[in-house]
DNA starvation/stationary phase protection protein
Amino acid sequence: MKVQIGITDEHRQLVADELVKILADENVLYVKTKNAHWNVEGPDFYEKHKFFESQVGLLDEVIDRVAERIRSIGHYAPASLKSYLSLTHLTEQTREKNNSKGFITELLADHDSLIIILREHIHSFGNRFHDLGTADFITAVMETHEKMAWFLRSHLKN
């Protein structure tokens, strides 16, 4: 059935093309956070293990919402690790030690990078592609990442 939601097919395609990249970033960040949850070591193990677990839960919710947004505008969400790795702008693990500071520093850089990308999309989704729903949706996703980044950043304060 044809999707008729007041956005041209071309604009829906362009929005979906960007949303699948965001979905890929979210999934890579999820796996990196899950890695931190599973593999963190050190005297603060239990505290950070629980902290990373809470961040994993937030990312799981974001991933589901992004995939559902892609579907709601009439496109399919990719669901393979291969596709995520080909679409993401993030890199996999870069640190050498499994300590909390290393994990937090790397995850914070990823969140900050994603926040910048999301912020850039808000304007284009709304003004260029006439999809105010996705612009609003991405604003909420960005705010989630801003809060997660704040929590990560707070752990690095002495």
Q: What stands out?
A: The chain has a mean pLDDT of 95. The domain at 9-90+98-156 is CATH 1.20.1260.10 (Ferritin).
